[in-house]
Amino acid sequence: MQHLKHFQGLAQVFFIRSPSSRLSKSVIPSLSVWDGHLSCRWRSTGGHGRQKYFNDRLPKFRFALAGLLAGTGAVLAYKLQQDKVQWAATSAQLRVTQTSDLPIYTLEEVTKHCSLDSGVWVTYKGAVYDITEFVAVHPGGDKILLAAGGALEPYWALYAVHQQDHVLEILSEYKIGVLDAESYKKQESANPLDPYSAEPTRHPALQINSLKPFNAEPPASILSDNYITPSVIFFKRNHLPVPRVDSEAYRLDIEGLPGGVVSLSLSELKSRFPKHTITATLQCAGNRRSEMNEVKQVKGLNWGIAAISNATWSGARLRDVLLFYGFGPEVAAKAKHVQFEGLDRDVTGTAYGASIPLNNAVSEEGDVLLAYEMNGEDLPPDHGYPVRVVVPGVVGARNVKWLGKIVVSDEESKSHWQQNDYKGFSPGTDWDTVDFKSAPAIQELPIQSAITHPAEGTSVDRSDREVTVKGYAWSGGGREVVRVDISVDGGKTWHVAKLRTSDQEQHPAPPPPPGRAWAWKLWEIDVPIPHRAQELEIVCKAVDSSYNMQPDTVAPIWNLRGVLSNAWHRVKVKVSEGFKDQK
Amino acid sequence: MQHLKHFQGLAQVFFIRSPSSRLSKSVIPSLSVWDGHLSCRWRSTGGHGRQKYFNDRLPKFRFALAGLLAGTGAVLAYKLQQDKVQWAATSAQLRVTQTSDLPIYTLEEVTKHCSLDSGVWVTYKGAVYDITEFVAVHPGGDKILLAAGGALEPYWALYAVHQQDHVLEILSEYKIGVLDAESYKKQESANPLDPYSAEPTRHPALQINSLKPFNAEPPASILSDNYITPSVIFFKRNHLPVPRVDSEAYRLDIEGLPGGVVSLSLSELKSRFPKHTITATLQCAGNRRSEMNEVKQVKGLNWGIAAISNATWSGARLRDVLLFYGFGPEVAAKAKHVQFEGLDRDVTGTAYGASIPLNNAVSEEGDVLLAYEMNGEDLPPDHGYPVRVVVPGVVGARNVKWLGKIVVSDEESKSHWQQNDYKGFSPGTDWDTVDFKSAPAIQELPIQSAITHPAEGTSVDRSDREVTVKGYAWSGGGREVVRVDISVDGGKTWHVAKLRTSDQEQHPAPPPPPGRAWAWKLWEIDVPIPHRAQELEIVCKAVDSSYNMQPDTVAPIWNLRGVLSNAWHRVKVKVSEGFKDQK
User: Fold this and answer.
1) Partner-chain residue, chosen from B444, B480, B551, that has the shortest CB–CB distance to A546
2) Which residues, other chains included, contact A443 with Cβ-Cβ below 8 Å and sequence gap of 6+?
3) Is the full-model pTM beyond 0.95?
4) Which residues, 6+ apart, have CB-to-CB distance to A134 below 8 Å?
5) Which GO terms fall under molecular function for this chain's record (chains A, B) (predicted)?
6) Which terminus has fewer CB within 10 Å in chain A: N or C?
7) B422 is an active site residue
8) Residue B6: partners with Cβ closer than 8 Å, 6 or more residues away
9) How many angstroms separate the CA atoms of B181 and A281, rounded?
C-alpha cells in the first residue's frame, strides 16, 4: 500500500476542482494547460470536424504508420539513456545556430499555420519550423498535426521517443525562423505541466521498457518465484499517463441498457453486487516481442518474457451489473459488444478504449470482473485504481484500467487500440500492405510458455548431472495448460515437466471447471545433462486442454506489430566441467 | 438415398425379433451366435466379474498395449491385400503339418481351458493351441482372453489385422493338438455370422483404411471440390460393425434427470423439439496420422489428410431435450458430464461410448444436436442412422453415432475410447511409460489445415508463371479460421490465401457468431513460381480467431497414438520446363 499512499499524496497536490463537468471532478485534466495553443484547430473545425479532416487527408498513411507511436505509447526506449546526453547538447544549439539571417515571427503568426492548407508551423525552444512537407513521412502518423501552430514540447514530453539526436537533426532541416523574444518568453512561462509528473513510484526491480508512458516487467529470474505475482512487480503496461482518480468523486457510467445511462459510485459498485474473486493471469499482446525483433525489427516495446503475471482479482461480476441494470434478451438481440473506456486520456482528450464480445461479457462462465481489488488490496494506481475490467483469458489490452465508462453496443470499440493496433498479421504483411480491417482484434490469446531458469548464457556444472529448468505456461480462453514438454537438446528429445498451481509450500488449487482455467501454471523439471554436451539448448513448449501447441520457430509467426510471440522458448547454457567429483 | 435403401433391405433379411429386451427389438444382436463358446466365462464370473478379472490381471499390460487393437478397431490395413494371398496358403497348411504325433482333443476339453489359471486354449481351423504364455505379449492386450476356450475365427473376423502371415506363424508355435473330427465339424457348422456381413454399400471413390470396421476417406483431390461434402464421400470412421436399426422400434433413453429414465421414440424426438440446423465440420483425431507414421510408427489407422469433412446437420438441440426433461440448477450442481452410448457393440456387448463436458452439452452457444438429418436427408447408415450426436468443434470420437442412450452424470464416460484411447501425449512417452490418466480426453481440436491441390510428386509448368494451391482449414471449439498462410519455398516467404465459406457459385454464408464457427473454410491462392526453382515445397498453415497457429514440424508433436497431427502441411512438386512460351 506504500505506493498507493504516495500516489494519493501526489493526487492531492495536483487536484483541480472544476465545476464544469463530472469527469473533471474525478480526473485531473492534466493536459488542459495545452488548450490554449490548440485553439486554432478547435475553433476552426471543432472536435468532430477535426477528426474528419484527419480522416480525409492521408488515409493510407494513417494505417501504414499508425503502429509506431500514435496513441500506443509504443516507445522504442532502448539506447535512450545513452542518447540523452548527446541530445541535450544538440538541442541547446538549435536556437542559436544559423539563425542570424532568418526571419523573426510572433506567436500569433505561427498560430495561423495550423493545417495542411495554411501550412504546418511548429516551434521548438524558440525556433520556428515549417514541417508541412514532413507530415506525410512522420513515423507517428497524423498525430503530428496536433502540434500544428504551436509548441512541440508538450507532445515530446508525452512521447519520449522524440528525445533522440536524429529527430532534432530532421527537425533542423525545416527551420524557417525564430520567435520574437516576447513570444518565446510567453511560451516558456506557459511551459506545460509534464503529464507524467504525478506517476506513482515503482519497485526498483522492474525492468523499464518505456518510462513515459510507464511500461515495465519484472526480471524473468524472479517471475516464477511466486505463483501469485506480488502487485509491485506485476508487469505494468500503461498507454498514457496514470490518471489520478478521487475515489469519492469516482463514477462509472453504463450506457446502452434500456433505462438510459446509469452512473455508479465506487461504494455502490462494492455494496450492490456480490464480491467475486478469481485468480487470473494477464499477458500483454507484446510479451516476448524481443524475440521477434531478433528476426526483423517490429514496432512496439521490446518486451522480454515477463510481460505476463498472475494475481487474484476481486470485484463485481460484469454480468451481474449488466443484468441488474436491465440487460436482457431484447438488448442481446441487438448488441454484440461491450465497450470499455478508461479515464486515461491523450492530449486530444481521447480515452483509452477497448471492447469484448457480448457473449464473453455476459456469460456465466466468462467470469468478467469490474475489479476493485488486486491480491486482496485496493487496486494499485498502475493497475487501474479504483476500478478496472478483468477479462480473464483475454489479452491485457482489453482489461481496461481506470474504468470510466461501459457501453453495450452493436459495434466494437472505435478506439485505435481496438481497430488499428492489437491485431495479428502474416509474416508477409508489411506497413505498406497492411489492412487492419482484414484481421480480427486480438481477444483470447494462444498457448504460451517460457523458461525463467536457467538464464540465457549462464553455465551448468556437469558434475551436477542434472539441470533444473523452471518456467511458466498459460493459455487464453480459459483453456487449461495440460502439459509442458522440455528438451535440453534443441527439441530432439522431450521430457514432461511437473506442473503446479500454487506456491511450493501451499496446497494446490482445486482444478478449475472446464473452460475456466484463468491462471497460469508454473512448472519445473530436473533433466539429465547429456554426455559430451558442451552446450544445452533448452526448449519448452506447452499444450492446452484443446491440445493447441506452440509453433516451433519465431520467423513464420513474425508480424509487423510483434504481437502473439509464442514460439517455443529457447535458452542456451554452457556445460562447464565441475570439480565436485574429483574432491 | 440409394445406400440407405440397400441397407434397409439387408436389415429386413437379418432382423431378429426378440421379446427379451427393448434393445434387441431395435438392434440386431448380430454377435449373439458367439454366446455359446463364451459360456465358460459367462458362467464362471458373469459380466461384471469378468471385467474385474481382466482388471486384476495384467494391469500394466492393459494400458501398455490397449491402443493397438482393443475396441478401437485400429487395424493396420496397409499391405493387407498383398498379404492375403500368401496368408490363405499358409493357413490351409496349418491343420495338416506336424500333426501326426500330436494329441486329439474334444471341444469339451478345450472349453475347460478358458482362463490364465486353467491355461488358455484356443482353436483355429481344427487345430488346438495353448496360448497361455502368449497372452502377456499379445499386441491387442487382454481382449485375447475373450477367445479363451473356443475358436479364434469370430474375433479375427472382427479384427482383420490378424489376417497376416506372421500372425499365423506366431500361432503355430503354440500348437498342442487337433480337434477330433466331430468337434471340428460341430464347430464349423456353428461358423459364426460375419458381424460385418450386413454393412451398407459404399462409394467406390472412398480410400479404405480398414474394411472391418469400415474406415475410409475421400481422395484428397476431390475433398475441397465441395464446401458441403456429399454424404457418400464424407469420411467414414466406424469402431464396430454398423448396427442395423429399425426406426419404428428405435428408442433413445435419457438417464440422470430428476424424473427417472426417459425413453423417446424417433417421431417424438422429431415432433417434440424444434428442428435446428448447423453446418459443422467433423474431423477424426487421427486425421493426417500417416505423417506421424513417417516420423516413427504409431498405433492406429493410417489416415491421409481427408479424415475431415463438412456437412449440414439437422436435429433437436441436446440442450432443449435436457431442459424439457428436467435439467436445471439442481442437476447442474452435481453433474459434470453428458455421456453417450451407441447401439454399435463389440463381442462382449460393450457399446461404443463417449462423453462431453456438461457445459458444452447445455450451453446455448454449444449447438450440440441430436441429429437425424445429414445434408437434408435421413442420416446414412454409416453416419449413425437414425440418430447421432453432433458436437460441433469437438473431435469426431465424441459425436456418437447410432445413439442409444444419454446419461447426465458426475463422471466421464468409462468407455475405453474416453479413458484409454483418444488422448494426446508427449513425443517422449511410449507404450511402456504411458499413463492414460495423466492426459485429458480430447474434446476441442486444435487449428488444422492441409493442401488438397496440387498433389505430392506432381509437376507444375514454369510457363504458367503461377501455381494454384487449394485446401481446407478448420479449428475446434467454434474458433473461426481467420487466415491461411501459404509458402512455396518451404516456409521462407508467405502469402495470404483467399478464404471461402460456400461453393464458388454461391453466396458466402453470413459470418458466424463469435465462438460458433463450426464449419471449415476452403482456401485458394495463385502463387508466383519463383525464378530458377526446380522444386517447390508448398506449405500451408492456418490461424484461428484465438490466434492459435499450427506447429512447424511433425516430430515434436509425434505421439504414440498418432492423434492431433496438425503440423504445417507440406507438398513437394517439380517445376517442369513448359513449351507454351516458345510456341
Assistant:
1) B444
2) A356, A357, A360, A394, A395, A398, A476, B545, B546
3) no
4) A144, A170, A174
5) heme binding; molybdenum ion binding; molybdopterin cofactor binding; sulfite oxidase activity
6) C
7) yes
8) B200, B201
9) 74
- pLDDT tier, B158 (very low <50, low <70, confident <90, very high otherwise): low
Compute the distance between CA of residue B359 and CA of residue B366 in angstroms, rounded to an integer. 8
B121 with B113: CB under 8 angstroms? yes
Among chain A residues, the shortest Cα distance to B494 is held by A428
- The CA-atom distances, in angstroms, between A151 and each of A32, A36, A37, B12, B497 are 15, 11, 8, 91, 47
- Which pLDDT tens digit goes with each residue over B357-414? 999 999 999 999 999 999 999 999 999 999 999 999 999 999 999 999 999 999 999 9
Q: Say how far apart CA A358 and CA A338 lie, in whole Å.
A: 6
User: How many helices (H) and strands (E) in chain B?
Assistant: 16, 28
Q: Hey, what's the cell of A128?
A: 520556428
Three-state SS string over B331-386 comes to HHCCCCEEEEEEEEECCCCCEEEEEEEHHHHHCCCCCCEEEEEECCEECCHHHCCC
- Is residue B325 within 8 Å of residue B256, measured between CB atoms? no
A457-513 pLDDT, tens digit each: 999 999 999 999 999 999 999 999 999 999 999 999 999 999 999 987 788 888 899
β-strands B276-283, A569-576: how paired? unpaired
Q: Which residues contact B82 (CB under 8 A, 6 or more apart)?
A: none
Query: Please, what are the domains in chain B?
Result: 104-190 (3.10.120.10), 216-420 (3.90.420.10), 447-576 (2.60.40.650)
For residues A125 and A183, what is the distance between their CA atoms, to the nearest angstrom?
A: 11
**Element of type H or E holding A112:** helix A107-112
State how beta strands B207-210 and B215-217 pair: antiparallel
Residues 537-576 of B with CB under 8 A from A: 541, 543, 545-553, 556-557, 564, 566
Tell me the HSE value of A103 on the side-chain side, using a 13 A CA sphere. Answer: 9
Q: Is B514 on the interface with A (CB under 8 A)?
A: yes
Is B227 an annotated catalytic residue? no
- Element of type H or E holding B3: helix B2-14
Q: Of A43-47, A479-483, B194-198, B429-433, which has the strongest mean pLDDT?
A: A479-483
| Grid cell digits, residue A139 | 513515423
Rounded alpha-carbon distances, angstroms, from residue A10 to A200, A443, B33, B347? 8, 35, 88, 79
C-alpha cell of residue A482:
495440460
ipTM higher than the 0.85 cut: no
